[in-house]
Amino acid sequence: MNAAWTATLQQFDQQLQLAARSEHTREAYARDITYLARLTRLEQPEQVNTLAVQRALAQLRHQGLSPRSLARILSSWRNLFHWMIRQEHIAANPCAGLRPPRAPQRLPKALSVDATMQLLDQPSEGRLQWRDHAMFELMYSSGLRLSETTSLNVADLDLSQQLVKVSGKGKRERLLPVGRSAADALRRWLEVRGSTQDDALFVSEQGTRLSSRQLARRLEKWRLQSDCEQHVHPHMLRHSFASHILQSSGDLRAVQEMLGHANLATTQIYTSLDFQHLAKVYDGAHPRAKKTPDNS
Questions:
Q1: Does the pLDDT of residue 255 top 90, yes or no?
Q2: Residue 109 catalytic?
Q3: Distance of CA 276 to CAs 247, 270, 271, Å?
Q4: Catalytic annotation on 180?
């Protein structure tokens, strides 16, 4: 960088120090601003306009930087120019209105129906395995989050009606159906749960509420016993619930209600999972789906 850019960066860094920003954060700002100086090739930061910023972002994207990295870099530039406005070095922020490219949406991983049955149908013996079986059956049966499962109390269950009351995000309560397999597993667990001062539905050997980490470890052990080759984390049972219900019913609104999503758009990601399933069925079954060899 030339003297003008270096002086501006030093002054900006002093402001970051006054704001008690960490050394790591200040180093990231310095690196990002160095990118801008090198890519724009302008003599002074005051000469940077919106077009120059857009071109710099395009070059970084061409170099293979991820959308997340580009978002961080653009934020650094925006903050620099915002500071320069306060210092009356420039009148407007050249980054105003610019947005980084959106990261591709990651689809949640779900088990196939067969893999789910393999996971849940393994035999269980003894108190801890009966508890684990009841937990995992309930998570898949009702689409529960990990935190929702560990926060359940015995009083939240109504097995006579096969219902469970769940307190989700934002303390929003919802009443969910409990499938027959889950209800049977829960009845067996309650018979051996024993008396404890903790109201928790799922308790440890010490009689205390099971933690999220303990549940995740038990699921991994359960997976290994079932010979399931696919890695399974607790949220996959919820994803599998949503995907399988949607495949069978196509009722997106019902799935939204059962999952406790405030926004339907959050639930719509499962339509992509459903399409992937349909695409596999089509490719395997339709006589015109498979490509024929090119004999030309």
A1: no
A2: no
A3: 10, 10, 9
A4: no
